[in-house]
Specification:
This protein has 365 residues and is an alpha+beta fold. The protein is built from 12 helices and 9 strands. The strands form 3 sheets. It has a 5-stranded antiparallel sheet with strand order 1-2-3-5-4, with helices on both faces. The protein has a two-stranded antiparallel ribbon with strand order 6-9. About 2% of the residues have low confidence. Pfam families: APH.
Length: 365
């Protein structure tokens, strides 16, 4: 059984005195201050802050980041405030928007303790993994069913033209960050542009929905609650994390982003090396099965899901390419980034295989 998710040593320090004063003035939290940092992630920074016996989680952008788009802390805090009580999310406690306290805006939220499945863990047993996968799909479907008017997010995004903007935008970002010639990825972009799906509707979409953004209940991970279904409140999922990319848009494009992360046992070594979530552990559905379960849970007609998988792959490729370009230019020092060009190539290869074979799974047979 994986251990509860725990922070480690601080890699990017915070101004402890300024933070302690803000917490005291804003939340009435007073006492000895301890700060630790959660270890994973390529983007925003997450800390566990302990004040006396109270545990609080703090989110802030990395140093030097543009605080708009994926680093907009106010946007994250707004989403959590709107969704709390409707879907499993941590409760936001406060937002500092000026950047005067820590050099960048940040927000704090309650800590939701539990298990986060990561590829560095030993696999859980297949039965438990199947329960997690079922909860994963049901929670995803529940998110896409949120009443946007009821939670006050109806005007949060621009759903009209979302598909076109995403396809064109990721191609533009790729051309800006491009460092190497990768014909497969170029071909995938051309095919995607020519095969853009129609709009399927508008929903709140996470845009980064994967296992390592879910906090799981460790007790129910070991044994399901007798006679209690996920929909009745017996779910494994305690919280969905990392809302930095969320917006109102096409839910099937959100499914595509998740498919891009969904690596199977038979996939290429390069894709498996990147795998951000343990989707190939025994008990997981294939990509084809994942789509079928999502369609059943939501009642949505997914149609030919290859286009959404290709979208997820090129999006993942561009994100990896952007980080790799920063590394090659000397703007990023993390040694993990040196090898991301292999991920970019692997995503292009998988996209071409999916198009050529007309399927999502068993692409390397």
């Amino acid at each position: 059984m994986p251990a509860l998710d725990q922070p480690t040593d601080v890699r990017v320090p915070l101004d402890r005195d300024a933070l302690a004063a803000w917490l005291r003035d804003t939340l009435g939290a007073d006492g000895d201050l301890d700060v630790r940092q959660f270890p994973s992630g390529f983007s925003n920074l997450t800390y566990l802050v302990t004040v006396g016996d109270r545990e609080i989680v703090l989110r802030r952008p990395p140093p030097g980041a543009n605080v708009t788009d994926g680093h907009d802390m106010g946007r994250e805090a707004t989403i959590l405030g709107a969704l709390h009580g409707h879907v499993p999310v941590p409760e936001p406690l406060g937002y500092e928007e000026t950047g005067d306290v820590l050099g960048a805006p940040f927000y704090v939220m309650e800590r939701v303790e539990g298990v986060i499945l990561r590829t560095t863990d030993d696999p859980i047993d297949a039965g438990a993994m199947t329960r997690v996968a079922d909860a994963f799909v049901r929670t995803f479907a529940g998110l896409h069913a949120v009443d946007l008017e009821e939670v006050g997010l109806a005007h949060f995004g621009k759903p009209e033209g979302y598909v076109r903007r995403q396809v064109e935008g990721w191609r533009r970002r790729y051309e800006t960050a491009k460092t190497d010639a990768i014909p497969d990825l170029d071909a995938a972009f051309v095919w995607l542009d020519a095969n853009q799906p129609g709009e399927s509707g508008a929903a709140l979409i996470h845009n980064d929905y994967k296992y390592d953004n879910l906090v799981l209940d460790p007790a129910r991970l070991e044994e399901p609650a007798d006679g209690v279904t996920e929909a009745e409140g017996g779910g494994l999922v305690r919280a969905i994390l990392d809302w930095e990319l969320a917006t109102v848009g096409d839910p099937l494009m959100d499914l595509g982003s998740t498919l891009g992360y969904w690596v199977e046992q038979g996939d290429s070594p390069a894709l498996k090396a990147l795998a951000l979530s343990p989707t190939w552990w025994p008990g997981n559905p294939t990509r084809d099965d994942l789509v079928a379960r999502y369609a059943e849970a939501t009642g949505r007609d997914v149609g030919d899901a290859v286009v959404y998988y290709v979208y997820g792959l090129v999006k993942l490729a561009v994100i990896a390419q952007q980080i790799y370009a920063r590394w090659t230019a000397g703007h990023a020092k993390d040694p993990r980034f040196e090898h991301l060009i292999h991920t970019v190539r692997a995503c292009g290869d998988a996209a071409v295989r999916a198009v050529d074979r007309g399927r999502l799974s068993n692409l390397y047979d």
